[in-house]
Every structure is written in structure tokens, then in C-alpha cells.
Amino acid sequence: MATPHPESWVEVRPHGLYVVPGGFYVDPLRGVDRAVITHGHSDHARPGHQAVLATAETLAIMAHRLGDQAGRSTQALAYGEVVRVGDVEVSLHPAGHVLGSAQVCVEYRGSRIVVSGDYKRRPDPTCAAFVPVPCDVFVTEATFGLPVFRHPDDGGEIARLLDSVRLFPDRCHVVGVYALGKAQRLIGLLRRAGWDRPIYAHGALLPMCALYEAHGVALGDLRPATAGAKGLPKDEFCGGIVLAPPSAIIDRWARRLPDPVVCMASGWMRVRQRARQGGVELPLIISDHADWDELLQTVDDVAAPEIWITHGREEALMHAASARGYRARALSLVGYEDEGGA
Amino acid sequence: MTPFSQLLDRLIYTPARNTKLALIVDYFRHAPDPDRGWALAALTGGLTFPGVKAGAIRELAMRRVDPVLFGWSYDYVGDLAETTALIWPERRTNRAWPTLGEVVERLRATARADAADVIEEWLDPLDATGRWALLKLITGGLRVGVSARLAKVALAEYGRVDAAEIEEVWHGLEPPYGELFAWLDGKAPRPDPKDKPVFRSPMLAHPLEDSEVATLDFGAFLAEWKWDGIRVQIASRGGQARLYSRTGDDIGGAFPDVLDHVNFEAVLDGELLVVLDGEVRPFNDLQQRLNRKTVTAATLRKHPAFVRLYDILFDRGEDLRALPLTERRARLEALMAREAPRRMDLSELVEFSDRGELERLRADARSSATEGLMLKRRDAPYVAGRPKGLWYKWKRGPLTVDAVLMYAQRGHGKRSSFYSDYTFGAWREHPQTGAPELVPVGKAYFGFTDDELKLIDKWVRDHTVNRFGPVREVEHALVFEVAFDSVHRSPRHKSGVAMRFPRIARIRWDKPAADADRLETLEGLIA
Questions:
Q1: Is A152 close to B23, i.e. CB distance below 8 A?
Q2: CB A39: neighbour CB atoms within 10 A?
Q3: Rounded CA gap, A341 and B19, in Å?
Q4: Is residue A210 within 8 angstroms of chain B, CB to CB?
Q5: Residue A257 maps to which CATH number?
Q6: Is the pLDDT of residue A341 over 50?
């Protein structure tokens, strides 16, 4: 019997990508009976599923964020371990995006599809590195699916931040970061660059940092950024680095800080207009997503004859993949955010 | 290119003046010669490459990039140089990053037809920020929010000299300014401008506060009208004439109608105005002539420029600045009688017997061309900067209206967490329905204290009805007393009027919005 093309057993349904012979969705947009979750970001890990399969780290992140909505029954799967679900075999492989992030590999009668979730190819001190898995269909994201998005070396970006800290010793640098992934990676990069002073963090970031530390990711001396009447004297932050969610860096919360230099760590910072609109003074191009070159490199690495694109700027990636001889198709899944913090 | 591109990259995101200064000074400290001199030329607008056009950049991109992908990318980024810098697919190369000096010198020596090849060689070793800076530099569109004046202030801070000293030598120097940096580094004497028509820092006036009026010895002062134009300096020396703005920008290119009539060798201080058929026109007319590099024949006819002179700094080579005002005035009158230059005249003295008479004159004068009076001590020398007690501007009292807050916008830098820029409106009847409506009449972002700003910010957040990015539309319920110097007709604004120097005089927490002023009230104040 011929191997069935994934087109015949994987469907795009209103709730998301559905594996028919396994009876489950991957990263569904609504509560469903059975879900396989790639990683803990809220647009991929939604509340209200009955059964959830994911890495132990992702399950821990979901439990922290969603409480009793994190799935009625859960099953942890280690990277590389294979489990049978219905008529298919499922395995998870590192995606390099955030702690616990995984690509979902599904095999059915000798035909194999890999759903990447969000991924990046750069080394990240806070999570396992992406592993290319050969397959028949590779389902990729395309958040940065335009050739202008080519992330510079993250070490250089950290050097720019530290150079600015040197130049403005009486000010504090407040960096906008997403709570899951970017915050911890930035801390990890700063530590690697030799910044051993305390790093201050907005209260919304601390629980996730604690969760990372509990999973063996050391972040060093991390302190709550509570200045002003109730907390530390303002001077404590002079020459310091403070991390906060993007929504807080230019709003009332930041007024407690001494003359902050507003920084933002995101792949979107590559485009000047976008950084300026956000009132950012020092954009740091540090992303947890693959850039354009890495999207194309990954397509080559997994050697799948066919590429499906879940979300992002799919038209340019389709165009480029087709030019390289791959069949490319846009799934146009809505509901995955054009993450501001990417 | 590395330090220079990093500098531009920081400057473009930096709203605060002091931060910009710190960045530029840091650059001057670390960048080598002649790079920092060329960078200074670029920041002060003195570096152009007429051989390279924006079209060449696009052609260059097309040598390496799929046109479809380039089109989508350009749509997204919205800037040709930036798109090309980001998308450029580097080829491996053994070339080092070009220095700024190399770029300038090589490009100046390159024929137009070969420019694209030369640039292409540089794009490979550079990173995206370096490419962006290079392309911005050579297409002449830095737009990093640094004025020539700010660059010179940074230079003064770097060399620990007075900014006026920089101005005095500036226009005698050429990029890459080796002499200048050698002086600032203490390795050479101050450059001597010799007989070049350089800019001399002007003498500025303090506002005369109400509390000072009673005690001022009016008898020691000469009075003149305060003309509502822009302060200029005509410098003529060694057969060359220049027209400088108050901040030392050479604006002569846009004012041939004044410079062509300079028939003397002197440095004169005066007010640039538009004078048509012997009558001084409102500031709005002069505005049509400002911030342009050149001028069309039609504009020259419609808004002819004129300089009303009030002081003399040099007569030929003779420095008159140490003389008392009365003697300088006599020298200026003599020069005007001798040379009688066209499109210039003397600012007349306002005769008065005592303070009471002068106060009456000031209050009565509501001409659109004057803003009040100038008082200058008869025995004062001409001192650069803003010395105390010598010159006063005595503006007539501001006009005020009560207007209703309509929109609030986030500020920049220190104020980025505050809604600090306010658009306010006056009432009128809707042209069709006759229902009362507010129409925006102006925008102001100062005049209030920091504590008041906090209160308004909170009010804005609590009364928002709509959001447009950084702008919030608010309930029509807060009244500002807005002070302004004058109001003019303006077809560009929906209300048909534009205020000059609007600022928030008071916040009228007590006043119902319906009792705010009507548009007709403003129209009645048009001078």
C-alpha cells in the first residue's frame, strides 16, 4: 500500500490543525478533547483542553499560567520519546524557541509530518537547540517571513546595551521583554557577557524566572524592581538594568525609575519605523524566532519536498520556497499572534 | 563607518537634547581623524554627493535581490535606503569595513557612472546598520534630528570651550575640520578666520518681568519696536557676503533678494522680514521663505525679503563690539547714509519721555508686525550670549482664550509615559446642521507645572473616549486658558486660524466646557 500523503490525513479545521487518524489537534485555538502543545506562549497553549500532550516543561508553564484550565489530564513526553496516539506515532523534538518548546513529529503509515510551532536556530542559554527532523511535509511558522528580517548576532546587541549603560551611568536602562522566554534569555545573555550585578525585574516577570530556575536555568542575582515609596531608593537603579513587560516600559510603571533609557528586545526592532512608533530609544534586535535566512536554511535542512506555512508573512516565504523547488502552501491559520515580543 | 553608523543609529531614536549631546561628544572622543570631521560635516549639512541619486540605490538592490521580494519588503519598511540595507545579501569578501574618510574621499573622486560599482563593493563588508548609514549619508537624507547648532554645542562641550567661540571660527573652516579638532584637543592655536565673513554670536535679550518694570531706570535705555521676524546677521568681508540665522546657519541661499544688495563690508545685526509695497507682512508670510535651500522667482515676487537693521558689530575690519550702543548706533547710521543698501533700513528709535509714555505705546501698538518693545542700555557694549541687565524684550501682554481639550498625545523622552501634548478647540455651529461643535484651533505642550501635568495625565486616562495609536480623544469636558502672542488666518487648518506660540496659561478645572470661547472670538483677534 502506498504511503498516504499528509494532505489526506491532516486537516485545517476552524479550531486549528487536526490529525485525523490520531484524533488530536496541534496548538488548537479553542478548548478541544485532545491537544498536542508545542510551547507555553498563550497563543499556542490555550485553556480548556481535556487531554494535553506536551513536554514536562511546557506542562509546568501551562499549569503556572492557566491553573485548573491547563488540561484535565496531561501527559509529559521527553524529547525524542515516541508515543502512540490513535493510529499515529507522535514524538517531540527541540524547537529552540523557549524552555520546553517542541516540534511535533507525527508519523502515519510511513508518512511523516513535522509541525514546527515557533522556532529559532540561534544558540540560547535557556533552552535546548533546534533539531532538524527529516519529513515529508514541514509545517513552519513565518513570523519574520520577509528578507529584511535578518537578526544580527545577539552578542553584538548585548554589547550595544552595555555600551549605553557605560555612557549613561546616572540613568537606568529598562528593557521591554516578554515574560516567557525573552526575559530569561536576555538575563542569560547578560550573564554570559559578564554582567554579574543584580538584574531587576518587574513583578510580572519573576514567577516565570523562578520556574526557569526550578528547571535548572541559572539566572544569577535577580531582584524585584520595586522603587519609590514602598521599595528600594530610586538611586539603586542608577547604572542598572531593569526588565519589564513591553506594556510597562513607557507607561506609568516606569516613572519610578531614574530617567530610564527605554529599550526593547524584539526581532521587530529591525525596522526603524516600528521601533520609533513604540517610543523605544535603544532597540535590541533579539528574537526567539527564525529570521529569513534561517527559515530558508531550515526548509533545506529538513529536506521535505513540501512546506506548509501556518502564520506570519507567508507570501514571501512561499515565493522563495517555490523558487528553490519546494511545493509551498499557506494554511492561513488565524489566531497566532504577530507577536509584539517576537 | 562603525562608530559613525552606531552614532546615527542611536541619534535617530533619541528625543532628548542632552542625550544627543552625550552621544555626539562620546563619538568625538573615540572616533579618529579625519572620520570625525567628515561626520561633523554630515551632521551640520555640509556634506553632499550630488552624483548619487535615490534611483541608483534601487538599481543596486536589483543587482542582487529578487524584485518581487524587494517590492514586498519595501512596502513593509517604507524606506528605500533602509530596505536595501536590510535585504542586501552579502557576498564573502576580504575587504575591511570602509572608514568614513575613505567613503567620502573615494566617492568625491568617482565619476557618476561608476558610483554604483564603488558603493556595491562597500555594501558587502558592512553590516545592516553600516549599510543604512552609508546609504543615508550618500543620498543626503540623514534626518537624525540633529541641527547644525546642536552639533556645534556638542563640539564646544567636547573641547570645553564656549559655543560662541566655535561659531566665530566655524564659517572660516572646511571639512574635515582638522584645524578645529587640533585646537579643541589643545594641540594647536585657535584657527584664525582672517578676512572671511564668519558668524559672530549675537547678543540676546532677557524678557522684562512685570516685577522689574517699576524699578528699571528707563532713562538709561533706548527703545525700539520688537519686530516679528527672525534675527539675522549680515556678514560681509573680503568681497563675500553671508546671511546667518541666530544660530549661525548660513541661510543666504534662500535670500538672494537681500544678499544681492550688500554693498558694504561690515557685520550687521537685524531682523529679517517680508516687506511688500513698503509694508511689513505678518510672520506667516515670512514662514513661506524659511527652511528652504533655494527660492523660486514667484516666491521672491510674492514674499520679498527685507532686513531691518539695529546694530553693527564690525565696520570693515574694525571690531566695534566694545563700544557703547549709542556709538555703535551712530556708526550704523553713518554706514546706512553712506551706502544706502536697498532692501534694508534702520530700525527706528521709539522716542519716549518716561515710563508711563512707553507703557502706553506698548499697550496701543497692536500691529501684526511687532510683538512689543526692545529696551537696550545706551552704554552697553555688544556682548555675545544673554548678559543680564543690558537688553530687554518687553512683549505686549499675551492674548488668551478658553479652549476645550479634544486630543492628548504622549510626549517624548522623559514625558513618554505622560499625555503631554494637547490639541484644543473652540466652539462653532456646524456649517450644515447648525449644531454646536468643537473645531481644533491649536496645540500646546508647555505652560503647566510637573504637578499639573500629572493631574492632566490622569484626567486624560480617565476621560478617554477613543484611541489612535499614541493619541487619545477625550470627553469635551476640560477647559484650558490658552495664551498666545497673535493669531493669523490659515487655510491649512480646519478652523481657518493659527495661533503663534500657544501655551497653557491655566487649567480651568472649574469651567464648564460649554462656556469656553467660540471661534468668532479668535477670529476677532486676528491682527
A1: no
A2: 28
A3: 26
A4: no
A5: 3.40.50
A6: no
Of residues B13, B78, B469, nearest to A280 (C-beta): B13
pTM of the predicted model as reported, rounded to 2 decimal places: 0.84
Distance from CA of A150 to the nearest CA of B (A): 7
Residue A327 predicted with pLDDT over 90? yes
Is the domain of B389 the same as that of B407?
A: no
Residue span of the structural domain in which B311 resides: 206-395
Q: Is A152 part of the contact surface with chain B (CB cutoff 8 Å)? A: yes
Of B12, B22, B78, the CB nearest to A167: B22
CATH number at residue B331: 3.30.470.30
Domain containing A193: what range? 154-284
Within 8 A by CB and 6+ apart from B21, the residues are B150, B153, B154, B157
Residue B180 lies in a domain: no
pLDDT, tens only, B71-92: 999 999 989 999 999 999 999 8
Whether B417 sits inside 8 A of A276 (CB atoms) is no
Q: How many domains does chain B have?
A: 3
Backbone torsions φ then ψ of B225, nearest 5 degrees = -70, 145
- Residues A210 and A295 reside in one and the same domain: no
Question: Is the separation of the CB atoms in B327 and B315 below 8 Å?
Answer: no
Q: In this structure, are A22 and A142 located in the same domain?
A: yes
Cβ distance B69 to A280 less than 8 Å, yes or no, reads no
CB nearest to B417's CB, from A250, A273, A319: A250
Q: Which CATH number belongs to the domain containing residue A26 in this structure?
A: 3.60.15.10
Domain count for chain A: 2
Q: How far is A210 from chain B (nearest CA, A)?
A: 29
Say whether both B406 and B381 belong to one domain.
Answer: no
Nearest-neighbour CA in chain B from A243: distance (Å): 17
Chain A 270-309, residues with CB within 8 Å of chain B CB atoms = 270-273, 275-277, 279-283
- Residue B167: what pLDDT? 87
B198-215 per-position pLDDT tens digit: 999 899 999 998 889 999
β-strand partners of B429: B436
SS (H, E, C) chain A: CCCCCHHHCEEEECCEEEEHHHCEEECCCCCCCEEECCCCCCCCCCCCCCEEEECHHHHHHHHHHHHHHCCCEEEECCECCEEEECCEEEEEEECCCCCCCEEEEEEECCEEEEECCCCCCCCCCCCCCCCCCCCCEEEEEECCCCCCCCCCCHHHHHHHHHHHHHHCCCCCEEEECCCCCHHHHHHHHHHHCCCCCCEEECCCCHHHHHHHHHCCCCCCCEEECCECCCCECHHHHCCCEEEECHHHHCCHHHHHCCCCEEEEECHHHHCHHHHHHCCCCEEECCCCCCCHHHHHHHHHHHCCCEEEEEEECHHHHHHHHHHCCCEEEECCCCCCCCCCCC
Which residue in chain B is spatially nearest to A260 when comparing CA positions? B414
- Within 53-112 of A, beta carbons closer than 8 Å to B belong to none
pLDDT tens digits, A166-199: 999 999 999 999 999 999 999 999 999 999 999 9
Min Cα distance B83 → chain A (Å) is 7
Same domain assignment for residues B124 and B35: yes
- Residue A337: inside a domain, yes or no? no
Q: Does A258 touch chain B (CB under 8 A)?
A: no
CB contact under 8 A, B72 and A270: no
Q: Which of A146, A279, A283 sits opposite B416 (nearest CB)?
A: A279
Measured between CA atoms, the residue of chain B closest to residue A256 is B417
Same domain, A199 and A218: yes
Domain harbouring B449, CATH code: 2.40.50.140
A166 and A137, same domain (yes or no): no
Do residue A315 and residue B72 have CB atoms under 8 angstroms apart? yes
* Same domain flag for B517 and B413: yes
A262: chain B residues, CB-CB within 8 Å: 416
